[in-house]
Design goal:
Distance between the termini: 34 Å
Strand order of the largest sheet: 7-6-5-8-9
Helix content: 40-55%
Number of helices: 20
Bound molecules: zinc ion
Number of strands: 9
Strand content: 5-15%
Radius of gyration: 30 Å
Structural class: alpha/beta
Largest sheet: 5 strands, mixed
Amino acid sequence: MALSNHDLRQLDEEVIDSLPVDGVKNLAKILLLDLKEARERLNQNSQNSSRPPSSEAPWDKASGHSNDDTDEPTESDKPEPATEEEALKEALQADGTDISNEDLPEENATALTSAIPQEIPAVKPPIEKPVRNPGKQPGAKGFGRTQIIPIHQYQDHHPTKCACCSRPFSEAEIENSKAYTAFDSLGLKWANTEKPGIEVINTRHTYYQIDCSCGHNTRAVPFRHPPDMELPGIELSEWRLVDATLASFIVCLSLRLRLSRVRIREFLHDWLGITLSVGTINKTIHESGRAVMPVEPILIEEALKSGLLHIDETSWPQKEKLLWLWAFVSTTVVLFKVSRRTAEVFQSLIIKNVYPGWIMTDGYQVYREHIKRLRCWAHLIRKARGLEEALNSEAQDFGEKSLFLLNSLIAAIKQAREAPPDQALSIIYQEQLEEYRRLCEKMRLSEHKKTHQLAVEMLNDWTVIFTILDHPHLPLTNNEAERALRHWVILRKICYGTRTAEGSRVFAILASVIETCRIRQCSPWRYLAEVIASRRAGLSVHQLPVCGSGV
Ligand SMILES: [Zn+2]
């Protein structure tokens, strides 16, 4: 949006008549751009659009989206518009860059009132309030707002050119510009070995306005993203009490150190002297997830380029729904997805994209759609060991023989990795394999349940299980994927999964970015802070860090 509501309110026929030809031309171009953008957005938001139901507009959603994942219920932050017309109005307002005090997130609105210099007149357009939701209302005194932290640094934001006639402002004009609003933002200074410790920095951002010679008043405004159709309850803007570094820190406390929102609040209060509400902490984590969302296609692209993907899945509750957390792990990318149906993610990522590489999986049937597949031998060995320890003599015998073959083959594979044999291992071990296959055929008829099951599993997936003999350089186990999931399985036990679809989306992308940075031996937190800062300002995401760069 080139023109904010503040700009538009000043424009009328009289202003256009008063402008020189060049000024009118410039203004017409800006208006045309805005009109096209507004039309496109209207189409997107229409109920008759071709968008899937999952992307329904924010005003069609039930309230309370921002409350998932919290350890205790928090207030919903915005009343839902009562009519479609109101909803459209609100959507356009949200898209615009006009920020009055009433638009502010409640947690830093107090900071603003103390931040506005006395002589600035309050420029607040009257906003009609639709029907309110129960609970705490926007503008009400909030938990995090009672705290007054001294200002450590100032950052001024000036407009650089007239929003109406496009004339660039001179240095003198910028110097004489008037402040019209401000907010405070809490951040952290990155520590290093020379200066360890956590230092909190409070920055006052002041926004200025300039009266142009053409008569237009132009304001610098903090960037604010239009609502995301996939994450309608999550705002992304520069106007934030929690800056990008503190947001990254909170994500670390939540996802890496597995602290609940309540514990994060306690920690920030007790150790950093920062008072934030559970709702603000939750919003910060969700906003961070929305900020890094554009990294997902990059991760998918890089994962699909790899020659081998380890894949595994584990259950993941989303409130009362039982979903699945999937992990796709290459040497440079870890991608997590939370999926409603068991096969959905695998098919959309691997089958539809015609992934050309190998996949390493367990015996789950969905994986059989992909031909270049490897089976994790650790699972088979565990099952064979179980039979070996069984009380049934037939099972014991089958377990022993299975273990003996698998162990001999593992030794041969390891040797082949160092010195490739003249013939493929499948030919060298042909006789033993045929003998074992006959044993499996026999054991398939066993009345001992586990014996029958292992024999059937071996026979059903025979080619895949022994593919490794022709490609000994490939891995024998799915340890990479299992290890990638382990951390989140512990988190699941602590927090019982996520609460909403938005919460699951945000969790999966943050987990993906964190683990990808870690596998690349880079700091996830610096990268996350950079991406959050860029995206809040309306810029594109940074490239993923290169392996081993350390940054
Ligand atoms: Zn002007």
